[in-house]
Design goal:
Largest sheet: 7 strands, mixed
Structural class: mainly beta
Radius of gyration: 13 Å
Strand content: over 45%
Number of helices: 0
């Protein structure tokens, strides 16, 4: 079983930036597509962004132009760079192995107005 460890969340003011990391226990290059999802209180978990093993990316409309997903194969790490954060970005963010349906433990992001 692949283990995913999310980190990098925190409290930030609106307009600020955070970078989330997800370290995988397996070689990330062998895992295929990876993604970030988020779940706000009382809401369903939703897709934020995905990246294929070839580097192709897909973003939710709400984060396009502000968030960037990337992967470092040498470090077995998935990233989510979040800029121009808004209060509505507040949620628990989860790393996801798209093929095997494994999840990270989640990291809390809170954006104050």
């Amino acid at each position: 079983q692949v283990r995913l460890v999310d980190s990098g969340g925190g409290l930030v003011q609106a307009g600020g930036s955070l970078r989330l990391s997800c370290v995988t226990s397996a070689r990330i290059v062998s895992l295929g597509a990876m993604g970030w999802y988020r779940q706000a209180p009382g809401k369903e978990r939703r897709l934020v962004a995905t990246i294929s093993s070839f580097g192709s990316t897909v973003y939710a409309d709400s984060v396009k132009g502000r968030f960037t997903i990337s992967r470092d194969n040498a470090k077995n790490t998935l990233y989510l760079q979040m800029n121009s954060l808004k209060p509505e970005d507040t949620a628990v963010y989860y790393c996801h192995d798209e093929r095997r349906d494994y999840w990270g433990q989640g990291t809390q992001v809170t954006v104050s107005s």
